[in-house]
Design a protein that fits this description.
About 30% of the residues lie in helices and about 20% in strands. By secondary structure, it is an alpha/beta fold. The protein starts with a strand and ends with a helix.
Length: about 325
């Protein structure tokens, strides 16, 4: 792995671009470039919480409507390539491999649908022995593809979680975004699990009484894409699931599709009716609104700097391209 660029703010978030494989004579090829991220959550210092977000694919075959990392799919990363992203960031901050951070979180969520790459599971099995990191937690975000490969992945994931990440050290997140089936297909254009399929799997995966975290249902509300809390309640038990709400981040693809966030990150009151409706149905609700500067860095979910650099247009208040080109 060769890191060829880095962007961002040491005290907030940084995005790293790496070439994983040589593409022969074509030195300008972006076929095997990946991005990975490290971030903190002000005012919490890095010594208390440190988050790494890594890629599992070259591009992504799903091509979600709002995600800049989708498309241009060129295959999956190996376990070594996944671990090299984490190694780079750990050794940069903690060269002896001792990570004394109480909440050291690794998210498999930057680039690629992780359930379509079994090397993600191999990496998860290796992580606890790779570093001295008593605060290690992992998070996996998925759109729940409905394929044999993904089903096999999810079955093995239960064993990986039980053996290596018990008692609340694993966070599983399903990205839902809307309760309208046709609209969900528009946003996530692949065959995927139904709500009942997700609920059934979560019942086998997570045991809150045994110390596991509740499974997260993630929504990035977009105008014109309904979210009905009562529909979610019909399928998902509030004792088993937690709701996460986050603004639709300003990506090139959402800009091209004219998608507009129903939550304005600078006006938190715009999220109140979503929060209230879910709470009335008995759910715990996480309102995840980070620093707006992260949109300019390009470190937020769905953002991908390599797409922005080659796009003819971009949304406002995102991707500081002029600064990137100075690197």
């Amino acid at each position: 792995m060769k890191v060829i660029a880095e962007y961002g703010d040491e005290e907030l978030a940084k995005v790293y671009v790496a070439r994983m494989r040589e593409d022969g004579a074509d030195e300008g090829s972006k076929k095997h470039l990946v991005e990975f991220v490290e971030s903190v959550q002000p005012p919490i210092p890095r010594e208390k919480k440190w988050v790494l977000i890594v890629s599992s694919m070259f591009g992504c075959p799903i091509s979600c409507k709002m995600c800049d990392a989708g498309g241009n799919y060129n295959g999956t990363l190996t376990k070594k390539e996944i671990m090299s992203q984490i190694d780079y960031l750990v050794m940069r901050r903690f060269p002896d491999g001792n990570v004394p951070v109480p909440n050291f979180k690794i998210q498999f969520a930057r680039m690629g649908e992780p359930s379509l790459n079994t090397a993600v599971l191999d990496a998860m099995e290796s992580l606890p022995g790779a570093y001295k990191a008593p605060g290690l937690h992992v998070s996996l975000s998925t759109v729940a593809p409905d394929s044999k490969k993904a089903r096999d992945f999810f079955e093995r994931l239960i064993d990986v979680k039980n053996q290596h990440y018990p008692k609340g050290r694993f966070q599983l997140q399903f990205s839902i975004h809307t309760t309208d089936g046709k609209k969900r297909d528009e946003l996530i254009p692949t065959r995927k699990w139904s709500f009942d399929d997700i609920a059934s799997y979560a019942g086998r995966f997570s045991s809150p009484d045994g110390g596991d975290k509740k499974v997260t249902l993630n929504f990035a509300p977009a105008a014109g894409y309904p979210i009905d809390a009562a529909v979610i309640r019909k399928h998902f038990d509030p004792e088993m699931f937690v709701i996460k709400l986050t603004p639709l981040n300003p990506t090139v693809r959402s800009h091209e599709a004219s998608l507009r966030s129903a939550i304005d990150p600078s006006e938190k009151d715009t999220s109140a009716h979503f929060v209230d409706k879910f709470r009335k149905e008995g759910y715990d609700v996480i309102l995840s609104i980070g620093e707006l500067e992260e949109n300019r860095i390009g470190s937020n979910c769905g953002q991908f700097i390599q797409r922005a650099l080659n796009a003819s247009g971009k949304p406002e208040r995102s991707y500081a391209l002029d600064e990137y080109r100075k690197q």
